[in-house]
Write a structure and sequence with these properties.
The complex is a heterodimer of chains A (139) and B (678).
Chain A: H1 3-29, E1 31-34, H2 36-45, E2 54-60, E3 66-67, E4 73-79, E5 84-90, E6 103-111, E7 117-126
Parallel strand pairs in A: 1-2, 5-7
Antiparallel strand pairs in A: 2-4, 2-6, 3-4, 4-5, 6-7
Chain B: H1 2-25, H2 32-61, H3 68-73, H4 80-85, H5 91-112, H6 121-142, H7 166-181, H8 183-195, H9 201-232, H10 242-267, H11 271-294, H12 308-329, H13 346-378, E1 381-383, H14 386-406, H15 417-440, H16 446-477, H17 481-491, H18 493-514, E2 519-525, E3 530-534, E4 540-553, E5 556-567, E6 570-582, E7 594-596, E8 598-601, E9 605-614, E10 621-629, H19 631-649, H20 665-673
Antiparallel strand pairs in B: 2-10, 3-4, 4-5, 5-6, 6-7, 8-9, 9-10
Chain lengths: 139, 678
C-alpha cells in the first residue's frame, strides 16, 4: 500500500469517528427546546413527551414566584402569552432570577403528567441585562 | 467632543474606502505615488480612529451623561479604572475599540513588514482597509457610540457589576487583540492569492502575526475562564457556552495552521490547506463576533439582541464568497511540490493533528449551531449542552494529546525503525509507568487513566527533548547544565518555546480531568452550625457559619456571609462570600444583585463558597460549597503556555539568525545524528 493510501485510511478513520461521535452525541444528549405552546402541542400529539428531559423557554408570570422559607425551593409560573405551566425547582436560583417583571427563563427538566414542570436547572436572563434603559427616551 | 469623534469616524471611512478602491483596482502597479497614498491612507485611518477613541474616553471621563453610551455604562461613583474599561464594555464602544486596534495593526503591518514583501503590501492595505471600513460603517449606521440623547440624566446607569472585576478589564481586550490580529494573516493570504506570489514568502511575512494572534486568543480565553470562575459563581470555568465556543474556534484552527505551516516551509506541501485554514480562521473570528453581538444564540456573555448582527452576517457571507472564489481561481497553481512518503513521518503526524483540530472545531461549531440547524431542518429546536461537547471532545482531545507526544519525536519524511526505537522507548515507558502507578494507588476511571497515562508519555517526550538537547551542548561546549539549557532554548526559540506550549497544554489536560472529581453540597446554616465536606484528595473540611454582616462600599450595598474553615480538624481561617446590590450616586439600585464568591485555593483543590442569600432576613444563611480539584493548574498551564508562546515569537531567535561565525557545524551535525534536529 502506498503512503498516500495509508494516510487516507487514517484520515478516513479520524473523519468517520468525528462524524459518529457527533451523531451519537446529538442523539443521546440533545434535548428539545420548546415554548409552552409548543410543549402543549407536543404532549397532546404524543404523550411520550411527558416525563421526557427537555428545555422550555418562557417568561416568568409576574407575581407568581413563591420561595420556600429556607430559600432552597422555588415555585413559579411561566408563560409565553398563550399557554402557561407551573414550575417547581429545588436548588439555588441564579442572581439573575429576580422578582422583576420581565425575566426570561430557560428551565431544564421534565413535565409531569400532573402538568407541573419539575426543573433540574433554571437559567434566567433579565431583559435589560447588558444594555441601557434609555432607548425609549431617544429623540 | 461627540462632533469631533463623529467627524473622525467619517474621515476614517473615506480614507479606508480610498485605500480599498486604489488597492484592488491595481492601478498602483508602477505608480509609487499611488502605492504611497495607499499606505498613507492606512496611517491616516489609524490617526482618525485614535482621535475618535480619545474623544469617547474624554466623554466617559467627564461624565457627559448626555451621550447615551456614557450614561449606559458609567456612573459618577464608578472607580476610575472601570471608566477606562467602559470603552469596551458595551456594543458601541467595543466596535470603536475594535476599529482603532485593527487600524493600528494595519498600520504596523505596513510599517514593519520587510521590504522583500513590498509587492504584497498594497493588497494587504486593501483588505485591512475594507475590514476597517466595514466596522466604521457599522458604527455610523447602526451603533454610533457618539449618539446624544434628548435629555441629560443626572447620573449614569453604571457598569454591570459582573464587569467590575480587574480580570474583566483585560480579558475582553486580550480576546479582541487576538480576534483583530487574525485580520493581518488573512490579508496577507488574500494578497498572495491576488498577486499570484504563491511561494512561501507570504508565510514568512505573517509568522509573527499568526503567533501574536494565537497567543492573544490563548491568553484571552484563559482569562475568560478565570473571570467566569470568580465572577459567575456557578463553580466552574468552562460551560461550553456559545460565546466561549466562538472564541475557541479560531484558536483551534490557528493552532492547526501553526503546525501545518511547518510542513509547507520544510516540504512544500499543503499550500491549499494552509490558505484554507487562514481564510477559515478569519471567517470564524467574524462568526464569533456575530454570535456575540447578534443575540442569535442565547449566552451569558453576549450583548443584547440588535441589528448589528445583520451587518456581521452580511459581512461574513460576502467575505466567505469572495475569499473562497479567489482561492478556487488559484487552485491549479497551488499544487504540492512533493508527495507524502510514509505515514510513519512527522508530516503524517502533523496532518493527523490538523484533522483532529479541525474535527474538534467542526464538532464545537456543529454543537453551537445545532439549535438553529435543527429548527431549520426539522422545525423544532433541539439543543445540546456540555454532555455533548464532553462526549465528543474528550476522545478527540485524548488522541490529539497522544499526537502531541508523537509529533516532536518522529522523523521527517520517513521514520526508520531505529529512529522509532531511540526516540520512543523512554517516553512510552514514562506513560506506561504513570498509568500503572495510578492504577496501583486505586484509580479505576478509564478516561482518567488514559488521559494521565498519555500525559506521562507527552511529559516524557518534552523532558527527553530538553535533556538530549542540553546533553549535546554540554558535550560540544563543556557548558554547565543550566547554561546549556538556557542557550539551548535561546538559540532554538521556535522549537523549545513550542515544547513549553505543549507542556502548558498538557497541564491544561491534567487540570481539566480534575473537574471530573468535583464535590458539591448546599446547606442552610444558623450561626455556629457547621457541615462537613470530603474532598477527592481525602481531606475533610468542616465549614462553620459565623454570621452575616451588612455594610456599604463605594458604589454598592453589601451583605457578607462568613464561614470559618477547618481542614482535617486544623483551622484554616475565614472565607467570606458577598451579595452585592450596586447603587448609583443617589443610592438608587442599579442592576440585579450579584454574588461575590469566596475561594481558597491550593495546589490540590479549591474550596469555593457561594452565599446564596439569608433566610427571611435573619442570620441564617444558604450556602453552596464546592470543591474543585486542580483548578490552580489551569491558571498555571495558561502561564506556561503564554511563556512558551512568548519565547517562540521573541525577536532575534531561531537558527536562521545565528550569525555565520557562531554556526557550530559539529553541534548541528551531532543534533542531526541523534535525530533531535528538525
Amino acid at each position: 500500500m502506498k503512503a498516500g493510501h495509508k494516510f487516507l485510511l487514517g484520515a478516513g478513520v479520524i473523519v468517520a469517528s468525528v462524524v459518529v461521535l457527533i451523531a451519537q452525541g446529538v442523539k443521546e444528549t440533545g434535548v428539545y427546546f420548546l415554548t409552552p405552546t409548543e410543549l402543549a402541542a407536543k404532549t397532546s400529539a404524543d404523550p411520550s413527551f411527558y416525563d421526557m428531559g427537555l428545555k422550555m423557554g418562557a417568561k416568568v408570570v409576574p407575581g407568581s414566584i413563591r420561595r420556600a422559607p429556607d430559600n432552597r425551593q422555588i415555585d413559579f409560573e411561566v408563560s409565553d402569552g398563550l399557554r402557561s405551566y407551573p414550575v417547581t425547582y429545588r436548588g439555588l436560583v441564579p442572581d439573575t432570577f429576580t422578582d422583576a417583571n420581565d425575566i426570561e427563563v430557560i428551565v431544564e427538566g421534565r413535565l409531569g403528567r400532573d402538568g407541573v414542570f419539575r426543573a433540574t436547572e433554571v437559567l434566567a436572563k433579565c431583559g435589560s441585562r447588558y444594555e441601557a434603559v434609555y432607548d425609549e427616551a431617544k429623540a | 467632543m461627540t462632533l469631533l469623534g463623529e467627524f473622525c469616524l467619517w474621515v476614517a471611512l473615506l480614507l479606508s474606502l480610498w485605500a480599498t478602491a486604489v488597492a484592488f483596482s491595481g492601478r498602483w502597479k508602477g505608480r509609487p505615488d499611488l502605492s504611497a497614498s495607499v499606505s498613507g491612507a492606512v496611517y491616516g485611518t489609524f490617526g482618525a480612529l485614535a482621535v475618535a477613541t480619545l474623544a469617547l474616553w474624554k466623554g466617559l471621563a467627564s461624565h457627559d451623561f448626555n451621550i447615551e453610551y456614557v450614561a449606559a455604562y458609567t456612573s459618577r461613583n464608578l472607580p476610575t479604572g472601570y471608566i477606562v474599561s467602559a470603552l469596551w464594555a458595551g456594543q458601541k464602544g467595543s466596535l470603536l475599540f475594535w476599529a482603532v486596534v485593527l487600524s493600528l495593526f494595519a498600520a504596523l503591518a505596513q510599517l514593519l513588514t520587510s521590504r522583500r514583501h513590498a509587492h504584497l503590501l498594497p493588497y494587504v492595505a486593501g483588505v485591512t482597509s475594507a475590514v476597517t471600513a466595514f466596522f466604521v460603517c457599522t458604527m455610523l449606521f447602526a451603533a454610533n457610540p457618539f449618539e446624544r440623547m434628548a435629555f441629560t440624566p443626572a447620573d449614569g446607569r453604571g457598569l454591570n457589576p459582573q464587569l467590575q472585576n480587574p480580570g474583566m478589564m483585560i480579558h475582553p481586550p486580550m480576546l479582541y487583540l487576538g480576534y483583530i490580529s487574525l485580520t493581518i494573516p488573512f490579508a496577507f493570504a488574500i494578497a498572495a492569492l491576488l498577486s499570484r506570489s504563491l511561494d512561501t514568502g507570504w508565510i514568512h511575512a505573517i509568522r509573527k502575526w499568526t503567533l501574536v494572534s494565537w497567543l492573544f486568543l490563548a491568553i484571552g480565553i484563559t482569562l475568560g475562564m478565570w473571570w467566569a470562575y470568580v465572577e459567575l459563581g456557578w463553580g466552574g470555568y468552562w460551560a461550553w457556552d456559545p460565546v466561549e465556543n466562538a472564541s475557541l474556534l479560531p484558536w483551534l484552527t490557528m493552532t492547526a495552521f501553526l503546525h501545518s505551516v511547518m510542513i509547507q516551509e520544510k516540504r512544500g506541501m499543503l499550500k491549499r490547506w494552509n490558505l484554507g485554514l487562514i481564510i477559515g480562521t478569519f471567517l470564524l473570528s467574524i462568526f464569533g463576533t456575530f454570535i456575540t453581538r447578534s443575540g442569535v444564540i442565547a449566552s451569558v456573555h453576549s450583548f443584547t439582541q440588535s441589528n448589528v448582527g445583520y451587518f456581521f452576517l452580511g459581512f461574513l457571507v460576502v467575505c466567505c464568497i469572495l475569499s473562497f472564489t479567489l482561492l478556487y481561481t488559484r487552485w491549479p497553481s497551488l499544487k504540492a511540490d512533493v508527495q507524502l512518503e510514509s505515514v510513519l513521518s512527522r508530516e503524517a503526524a502533523f496532518l493527523f493533528n490538523n484533522l483532529l483540530l479541525v474535527g474538534i472545531a467542526f464538532s464545537v461549531l456543529w454543537g453551537t449551531l445545532f439549535p438553529i440547524l435543527s429548527e431549520l431542518v426539522r422545525g423544532s429546536k433541539i439543543t445540546v449542552g456540555p454532555p455533548f461537547f464532553n462526549r465528543v471532545n474528550v476522545p478527540l482531545g485524548l488522541l490529539l494529546l497522544g499526537l502531541t507526544g508523537i509529533g516532536p519525536l518522529i522523523a521527517w519524511r520517513k521514520a526508520s525503525p531505529a529512529n522509532l526505537r531511540r526516540q520512543f522507548t523512554w517516553p512510552v515507558a514514562a506513560g506506561i509507568v504513570t498509568a500503572l502507578v495510578l492504577f496501583a494507588i486505586g484509580a479505576r476511571d478509564l478516561y482518567a487513566l488514559t488521559a494521565l497515562g498519555l500525559a506521562g508519555f507527552v511529559a516524557g517526550t518534552i523532558l527527553q527533548e530538553f535533556y538530549r538537547g542540553m546533553r549535546a551542548r554540554r558535550r560540544m561546549h563543556g557548558e554547565s547544565a543550566a547554561v546549556a539549557l538556557a542557550r539551548l532554548v535561546a538559540r532554538n526559540r521556535r522549537r523549545y518555546g513550542g515544547y513549553l506550549v505543549h507542556a502548558g497544554v498538557l497541564i491544561y489536560f491534567v487540570a481539566f480531568s480534575g473537574m471530573a472529581f468535583r464535590r458539591e453540597m448546599e446547606a442552610t446554616l444558623k450561626p455556629g452550625e457547621s457541615v462537613t465536606l470530603a474532598s477527592p484528595f481525602g481531606h475533610t473540611y468542616t465549614l462553620t457559619h459565623v454570621g452575616i454582616s451588612q455594610f456599604e462600599a463605594l458604589n454598592r450595598i453589601v451583605s457578607a456571609a462568613t464561614v470559618s474553615v477547618a481542614k482535617d480538624g486544623r483551622s484554616q481561617g475565614l472565607i467570606t462570600s458577598e451579595k452585592r446590590q450596586h447603587v448609583d450616586s443617589f443610592r438608587r439600585p442599579t442592576f440585579e444583585p450579584s454574588t461575590e464568591v469566596g475561594i481558597r485555593s491550593n495546589l490540590q483543590e479549591d474550596l469555593y463558597i457561594t452565599y446564596a442569600g439569608s433566610v427571611g432576613g435573619t442570620e441564617e444563611a444558604v450556602y453552596r460549597f464546592t470543591i474543585n480539584p486542580l483548578v490552580w493548574w489551569v491558571w498555571f498551564g495558561g502561564f506556561v503556555l503564554a511563556l512558551g508562546g512568548l519565547i517562540t515569537m521573541w525577536p532575534g531567535g531561531g537558527a536562521a539568525l545565528v550569525s555565520p561565525r557562531r554556526v557550530e557545524p559539529g553541534y548541528q551535525a551531532s543534533l542531526a545524528a541523534t535525530g533531535a534536529a528538525e
